[in-house]
Amino acid sequence: MSAPAANCPNCGAPVTFRWSSAVQTTCEFCHSILVRTDVNLERVGQVSDLPPDASPIQIGTEGIYQNKAFVVIGRIIYHYEQGAWNEWHLVFNDSTNGWLSDAQLEYDLSTQTQAPPRLPLADEIQRGNPFQFNGKTYLATSLTRARYKGVQGELPFQYFDKTIVLFADLRTPNGDFATIDYSEDPPLLFEGRAVEFDDLHFKNLRLFEGWS
Fold first, then answer.
1. What is the helix (H) or strand (E) element at residue 198, kind and residue range?
2. Which residues, at least 6 apart from 125, have a Cβ–Cβ distance to it below 8 Å?
3. How far is CA 52 from each of CA 61, 102, 139, 149, rounded to the nearest angstrom?
4. What gap in Å lies between CA 164 and CA 166, rounded to an integer?
């Protein structure tokens, strides 16, 4: 992977991108949110202190999924009425990217896919609704309204200071997973599978006191 580099327009610190297609990143030194425009970086905000996080996954964690190695290069943190979760941005060794949802010890790995001509509107979808995408029949299992809480690292799009967003999670009986993300218009579709932590063969995890 190529590693384009620039300097933070706020503090002057060097900023190197792990992924050549990254659009947004955060400065590790002053926590500025930086948007990439051609070869320049524009400061669009600043990350507040990130909430406490019990996940062992961190920026720079590596793993393997379906025989493809990946590295964690960014995350979006969401807060909802029952707590918070991480959406970890992954880049694979073939330069494709994906997302690992990390919520209360449940993990789903997905990639953005082509949405059908019409996804249900946010006020139309209900739990239990069936949907067919790419030859699979999903049931809507949860509807979550969440607020952006923070960002870290590299993302494939601009994402900061968002309002409350609806996410509809869909599942099949054999472990297929999909999310309809209503943060954009038209909404975005992500498809993948539920995964077990140990199946991703992680290394470079965050260590906690008392771990051996």
1. none
2. 140, 143, 168, 180
3. 18, 14, 33, 11
4. 7
Task: Please name the residue that has the structure tokens 């999909």.
Answer: 178
Amino acid identity of residue 68, one-letter, is: K
User: Per DSSP, which regions of 23-67 are E strands?
Assistant: 24-26, 32-37, 40-46, 62-65
pTM, entire model: 0.88
Using an 8 Å Cβ cutoff, are 131 and 137 in contact? Answer: yes
User: 98, 16, 71, 54: which is closest to 203 by C-alpha?
Assistant: 71
pLDDT in tens, 58-113: 999 999 999 999 999 999 999 998 889 999 999 999 999 999 999 988 999 999 99
**CB–CB of 166/185 below 8 Å?**
no
- Please give the Cα distance from 122 to 25 (Å, whole number): 29
- Name residues of the chain where pLDDT drops below 70: 1-3, 38-39, 48-49, 51, 161-162, 209-212
